[in-house]
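Dear support,

I submitted the protein below through the web form. The confirmation email said the job was done, but the results page showed an empty box. After a refresh the structure appeared. I'm attaching both so you can tell me whether what I see now is the final result or a partial one.
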Amino acid sequence: MTGWLRVTIDGYEGDYFEWQGATMLGSSALHPSGAMQRAGRTVASLRFGFTREGEIVLRLDPDPQNTLPVWADLGLDLSFHAAGETRQISIDLDERGVARPARLYLAVPQEGTAALPPRPSRARVAARKILEISVPAEEAGLRAGRRAGLRVRLRCREETISLREIDLTTPEFPARAPAEETT
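What the results page shows now:
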Protein backbone atom coordinates (compact mmCIF):
# COMPACT_ATOMS: atom_id res chain seq x y z
CA MET A 1 0.00 0.00 0.00
CA THR A 2 1.33 3.40 -0.91
CA GLY A 3 -0.98 5.60 1.17
CA TRP A 4 -4.40 6.09 2.69
CA LEU A 5 -7.25 6.53 0.24
CA ARG A 6 -9.86 9.29 0.49
CA VAL A 7 -12.68 7.84 -1.56
CA THR A 8 -16.24 9.07 -1.95
CA ILE A 9 -18.51 6.06 -2.47
CA ASP A 10 -20.74 7.52 -5.19
CA GLY A 11 -20.18 5.32 -8.27
CA TYR A 12 -18.47 8.08 -10.25
CA GLU A 13 -14.86 8.77 -11.05
CA GLY A 14 -13.93 11.63 -8.78
CA ASP A 15 -10.84 13.67 -9.19
CA TYR A 16 -7.59 12.10 -10.31
CA PHE A 17 -6.31 11.72 -6.75
CA GLU A 18 -9.33 9.89 -5.32
CA TRP A 19 -7.94 6.40 -6.08
CA GLN A 20 -4.27 7.37 -6.30
CA GLY A 21 -2.27 4.93 -4.19
CA ALA A 22 -4.71 2.05 -4.64
CA THR A 23 -3.49 -1.33 -5.83
CA MET A 24 -4.80 -1.87 -9.36
CA LEU A 25 -5.35 -5.25 -11.01
CA GLY A 26 -6.17 -5.45 -14.72
CA SER A 27 -8.51 -7.99 -16.29
CA SER A 28 -5.74 -10.49 -17.07
CA ALA A 29 -4.79 -10.58 -13.37
CA LEU A 30 -8.42 -10.96 -12.27
CA HIS A 31 -10.00 -13.50 -14.55
CA PRO A 32 -9.07 -17.18 -14.55
CA SER A 33 -8.15 -18.47 -17.99
CA GLY A 34 -11.21 -18.71 -20.24
CA ALA A 35 -13.52 -16.84 -17.86
CA MET A 36 -12.86 -13.54 -19.62
CA GLN A 37 -14.41 -14.80 -22.83
CA ARG A 38 -17.39 -16.41 -21.03
CA ALA A 39 -18.05 -13.34 -18.95
CA GLY A 40 -17.64 -10.90 -21.79
CA ARG A 41 -14.92 -9.32 -19.65
CA THR A 42 -17.47 -7.69 -17.35
CA VAL A 43 -14.71 -6.22 -15.17
CA ALA A 44 -11.81 -4.43 -16.84
CA SER A 45 -10.00 -3.63 -13.58
CA LEU A 46 -10.27 -3.74 -9.82
CA ARG A 47 -8.63 -1.29 -7.42
CA PHE A 48 -8.43 -1.61 -3.67
CA GLY A 49 -6.88 0.03 -0.66
CA PHE A 50 -7.60 1.23 2.85
CA THR A 51 -8.88 4.43 4.45
CA ARG A 52 -7.67 6.06 7.67
CA GLU A 53 -11.12 5.32 9.08
CA GLY A 54 -10.46 1.57 9.03
CA GLU A 55 -12.22 0.54 5.84
CA ILE A 56 -11.18 -1.53 2.87
CA VAL A 57 -12.42 0.12 -0.31
CA LEU A 58 -12.84 -1.49 -3.73
CA ARG A 59 -13.49 -0.09 -7.17
CA LEU A 60 -14.58 -2.18 -10.15
CA ASP A 61 -14.41 -0.66 -13.62
CA PRO A 62 -16.53 -2.19 -16.38
CA ASP A 63 -15.05 -3.17 -19.70
CA PRO A 64 -15.54 -0.11 -21.96
CA GLN A 65 -16.51 -2.44 -24.84
CA ASN A 66 -19.41 -3.96 -22.89
CA THR A 67 -22.70 -2.71 -24.35
CA LEU A 68 -24.93 -4.25 -21.66
CA PRO A 69 -25.87 -2.38 -18.47
CA VAL A 70 -23.09 -3.96 -16.43
CA TRP A 71 -24.37 -3.30 -12.91
CA ALA A 72 -28.07 -4.10 -13.50
CA ASP A 73 -29.27 -7.19 -11.60
CA LEU A 74 -25.72 -7.96 -10.47
CA GLY A 75 -24.89 -9.80 -7.27
CA LEU A 76 -21.50 -9.65 -5.59
CA ASP A 77 -20.01 -11.79 -2.86
CA LEU A 78 -16.86 -10.52 -1.17
CA SER A 79 -15.27 -13.38 0.78
CA PHE A 80 -12.52 -12.37 3.20
CA HIS A 81 -10.26 -15.20 4.42
CA ALA A 82 -8.26 -14.19 7.49
CA ALA A 83 -7.00 -15.85 10.66
CA GLY A 84 -8.60 -19.19 9.82
CA GLU A 85 -12.09 -17.84 9.23
CA THR A 86 -14.12 -16.65 6.27
CA ARG A 87 -16.56 -13.76 6.34
CA GLN A 88 -18.71 -12.88 3.39
CA ILE A 89 -20.40 -9.64 2.42
CA SER A 90 -23.20 -10.22 -0.11
CA ILE A 91 -24.56 -7.36 -2.19
CA ASP A 92 -27.40 -7.39 -4.69
CA LEU A 93 -28.13 -4.64 -7.20
CA ASP A 94 -31.58 -4.16 -8.71
CA GLU A 95 -32.45 -3.69 -12.38
CA ARG A 96 -31.30 -0.04 -12.18
CA GLY A 97 -28.03 -0.91 -10.43
CA VAL A 98 -29.20 0.38 -7.04
CA ALA A 99 -27.78 -1.59 -4.12
CA ARG A 100 -30.08 -3.39 -1.75
CA PRO A 101 -28.92 -3.60 1.90
CA ALA A 102 -25.71 -5.64 2.13
CA ARG A 103 -25.63 -8.82 4.23
CA LEU A 104 -22.81 -10.13 6.41
CA TYR A 105 -22.24 -13.86 6.86
CA LEU A 106 -19.91 -14.51 9.79
CA ALA A 107 -19.37 -18.11 8.75
CA VAL A 108 -19.65 -19.25 5.17
CA PRO A 109 -21.27 -22.69 5.12
CA GLN A 110 -19.34 -25.63 3.76
CA GLU A 111 -20.96 -27.91 1.20
CA GLY A 112 -23.82 -29.81 2.82
CA THR A 113 -24.07 -27.65 5.97
CA ALA A 114 -26.74 -25.17 6.94
CA ALA A 115 -26.04 -21.46 6.53
CA LEU A 116 -26.20 -19.20 9.54
CA PRO A 117 -28.65 -16.33 9.10
CA PRO A 118 -26.99 -13.19 7.77
CA ARG A 119 -26.63 -9.94 9.69
CA PRO A 120 -27.00 -6.47 8.23
CA SER A 121 -23.66 -5.22 6.92
CA ARG A 122 -22.29 -1.69 7.25
CA ALA A 123 -20.84 -1.93 3.73
CA ARG A 124 -21.57 1.07 1.52
CA VAL A 125 -22.09 0.52 -2.21
CA ALA A 126 -22.64 2.77 -5.24
CA ALA A 127 -22.93 1.53 -8.82
CA ARG A 128 -23.12 4.14 -11.54
CA LYS A 129 -20.30 4.51 -14.07
CA ILE A 130 -18.05 2.43 -11.79
CA LEU A 131 -18.83 0.21 -8.81
CA GLU A 132 -17.44 1.38 -5.47
CA ILE A 133 -17.63 -0.52 -2.19
CA SER A 134 -16.49 0.32 1.33
CA VAL A 135 -16.39 -2.34 4.07
CA PRO A 136 -15.28 -1.79 7.67
CA ALA A 137 -12.11 -3.85 8.13
CA GLU A 138 -13.27 -5.31 11.45
CA GLU A 139 -16.55 -6.45 9.85
CA ALA A 140 -14.51 -8.29 7.19
CA GLY A 141 -12.41 -9.94 9.93
CA LEU A 142 -9.25 -8.10 8.85
CA ARG A 143 -6.64 -7.52 11.57
CA ALA A 144 -3.87 -4.92 11.49
CA GLY A 145 -0.57 -6.25 10.20
CA ARG A 146 -2.08 -9.58 9.12
CA ARG A 147 -2.33 -11.09 5.68
CA ALA A 148 -5.69 -12.04 4.25
CA GLY A 149 -7.28 -13.20 1.03
CA LEU A 150 -10.19 -11.62 -0.79
CA ARG A 151 -12.28 -13.47 -3.33
CA VAL A 152 -14.78 -11.52 -5.43
CA ARG A 153 -17.62 -13.47 -7.02
CA LEU A 154 -19.97 -11.83 -9.52
CA ARG A 155 -23.44 -13.26 -9.95
CA CYS A 156 -24.69 -11.90 -13.25
CA ARG A 157 -27.48 -12.95 -15.51
CA GLU A 158 -27.16 -16.70 -15.99
CA GLU A 159 -23.72 -17.36 -14.56
CA THR A 160 -21.36 -16.83 -11.66
CA ILE A 161 -17.84 -15.58 -12.24
CA SER A 162 -15.17 -15.92 -9.56
CA LEU A 163 -12.23 -13.57 -9.89
CA ARG A 164 -8.77 -14.70 -8.80
CA GLU A 165 -8.12 -14.41 -5.08
CA ILE A 166 -6.37 -11.22 -4.01
CA ASP A 167 -3.69 -11.33 -1.31
CA LEU A 168 -3.64 -8.29 0.94
CA THR A 169 -2.08 -7.13 4.17
CA THR A 170 -4.16 -4.99 6.52
CA PRO A 171 -2.30 -1.86 7.65
CA GLU A 172 -2.12 -0.43 11.16
CA PHE A 173 -4.92 2.12 11.24
CA PRO A 174 -4.32 5.46 12.99
CA ALA A 175 -5.59 5.62 16.55
CA ARG A 176 -8.99 7.25 16.76
CA ALA A 177 -9.55 10.12 19.13
CA PRO A 178 -11.87 9.13 21.97
CA ALA A 179 -15.45 10.27 21.44
CA GLU A 180 -16.32 13.41 23.36
CA GLU A 181 -18.53 12.75 26.30
CA THR A 182 -21.76 14.67 26.56
CA THR A 183 -23.19 15.67 29.89
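Response: this is the final, complete result; the empty box was a page-load delay. The first strand starts at residue 23 and ends at 26.
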